[in-house]
Design goal:
The protein is 41% helix and 17% strand. The protein is α/β, with parallel strands linked by helices. The protein has one domain: Alanine racemase (TIM Barrel). It has an eight-stranded parallel beta sheet with strand order 7-6-5-4-3-2-1-8. Helix 3 links the parallel strand 2 and strand 3. It is globular and about 50 Å long.
């Protein structure tokens, strides 16, 4: 059976090779290990292997796990955030990659003020036009960006997107290319460092995401193995 340390090492090597092919520096790629449904023991094994960033999808699950993990890594919320969960999100997470509306931005901003923490934020954009998928439409992206930037404790750093459910190569590349175009468009108009990050790509499609310009990739199965739930 492959250990988490071996899987992490293999993934790092694959990322290095993909970066070499794309003419990119692997040191600039941040890997967020998606620990959804993973037990504390596996998260601790991943930390021991060198993983520093972890992503959780559900507030309730994360609430029961984060306090148990030592030393504390950097925690990212990568799943949809409801406004009524903003207070918990602000308390638990260092980064929220899934701000997708003005209401969510405002709720998270108020929550960050209450808990006295700065929260890194990525705006999630729906680059696939799939109705069942979270993320703001490109047409309203500017309004969400503006709402985030109005919140004193929210630190805008870029965009996040999720590829199409089909995982087919051409639609996936098209979605990633659109997200990259949106990032570049807004980076040219906003202050420095507010659009440095493009988070896209998961275990099944991260090489395409990296070729299209991803800075952060969100990986679960390739590190932890198949999920049981």
């Amino acid at each position: 059976m492959t250990t988490i340390a071996e899987s992490w090492g293999d993934l790092r090597e694959q990322v290095a090779r993909a970066c070499a092919s794309a003419g990119r520096d692997p040191a600039t790629i941040r890997i967020v290990a998606v620990s959804k449904v993973q037990p504390i023991e596996k998260i601790q094994d991943a930390i021991a292997a060198g993983v520093t960033d972890f992503g959780e999808n559900r507030i309730q699950e994360a609430d029961g796990k984060i306090a148990q993990v030592e030393p504390r890594p950097t925690w990212h919320l990568v799943g949809h955030l409801q406004t009524n969960k903003a207070n918990k999100a602000a308390r638990l997470f260092d980064w929220v990659q899934s701000v997708d509306s003005v209401r969510v931005a405002e709720a998270l901003g108020r929550a960050a003020e209450l808990v006295g923490r700065d929260i890194g934020v990525l705006v999630q954009v729906n680059a696939t036009a799939e109705g069942q998928k979270s993320g703001c439409e490109p047409a309203v992206l500017g309004a969400v960006i503006e709402a985030v930037m109005k919140q004193r404790r929210l630190k805008l750093a870029g965009l996040m997107t999720i590829g199409p459910l089909s995982m087919a190569e051409m639609p996936t590349r098209t979605a990633f290319e659109l997200a990259a175009e949106l990032r570049e468009r807004w980076r040219s108009e906003l202050p420095p460092r507010t659009m440095d990050v493009l988070s896209m790509g998961m275990s099944g499609d991260w090489p395409w995401a990296l070729e299209c310009g991803a800075d952060w990739i969100r990986i679960g199965t390739a590190i932890f193995g198949p999920r049981n739930a």
